[in-house]
Automatic annotation (TrEMBL):
The keyword ATP-binding does not apply. The lineage of its organism: Bacteria, Bacillati, Actinomycetota, Actinomycetes, Streptosporangiales. Residues 34-93 form the HTH tetR-type domain. Pfam families: TetR_C_43, TetR_N. This is TetR/AcrR family transcriptional regulator. It comes from the Bacteria. The keyword Transferase does not apply. Residues 56-75 bind DNA. Keywords: DNA-binding, Transcription, Transcription regulation. Residues 1-34 are annotated as: Disordered.
Length: 210
């Protein structure tokens, strides 16, 4: 995964106005670099969802509005890019949970919207095992990271919906995530199978009778 290097020290002695300007510019530069990387990862994730992880890099570059060389500068290999997208989407899903709870009409609605994001992530994730086939330890580390970040978010959404009297209180986050994952298996290889529709039916079925 691409890392940004630290700026070197400017040396000893008095700091003039020009040095001060450079010091103030550095954080902006790093922030711009992080935004640029997020733009690339968002573009790659969107392309992977529709075209799979073997999609041409030029398609990702076109969606991000950059040149192909920019993609390779940030992510020298396809594996680097796929793993970075994986981690980026995990973080996006984790951060979306509290935001959806705050902005949705009901906790159940927030849960449904979050699960839609989770489905997008699962579709993107399908090519990860093949990419890491020769690195079982790396795959296991990413799987642990995935569970550690997303299970508490899913649990919080379920707890909020249960507290509002919308769903049963005994639904386990791991159980739900595993069920959604199983519904998504094969969705990218069978055009007659609409995994998202089945997942929506699952989430609707969690509701308690009024």
């Amino acid at each position: 995964m691409f890392r940004f290097g630290k700026l070197g020290d400017g040396g000893s002695g008095a700091v003039n106005d020009r040095d001060g300007d450079a010091g103030r510019a550095a954080p902006r530069k790093r922030a711009d670099a992080r935004r640029n990387e997020r733009t690339l990862l968002d573009a790659a994730a969107a392309v992977f969802v529709t075209s799979g992880v073997e999609a041409p890099v030029r398609d990702i570059a076109a969606r991000a509005g950059v040149g192909v060389a920019t993609i390779y500068r940030h992510f020298p290999t396809r594996a680097d890019l796929i793993i970075a997208v994986y981690r980026h989407q995990v973080e996006s899903c984790a951060e979306a949970g509290p935001a959806l709870l705050a902005s949705s009409a009901t906790p159940h609605d927030a849960l449904g919207r979050w699960v839609n994001l989770f489905v997008d992530f699962l579709v993107t994730k399908h090519g990860l095992a093949a990419v890491l086939r020769s690195d079982e330890a790396g795959f296991e580390a990413l799987h642990t990271y995935f569970l550690d970040r997303l299970m508490p978010v899913c649990a919080r959404l379920l707890e909020a919906a249960a507290a509002a009297g919308e769903i049963r209180p005994d639904i386990d986050a791991y159980e739900l995530m595993r069920g959604v994952g199983n519904l998504c298996i094969g969705a990218d290889s069978d055009p007659r199978y609409d995994a998202r529709r089945l997942v929506e039916l699952l989430i609707a079925g969690l509701r308690l009778p009024r």
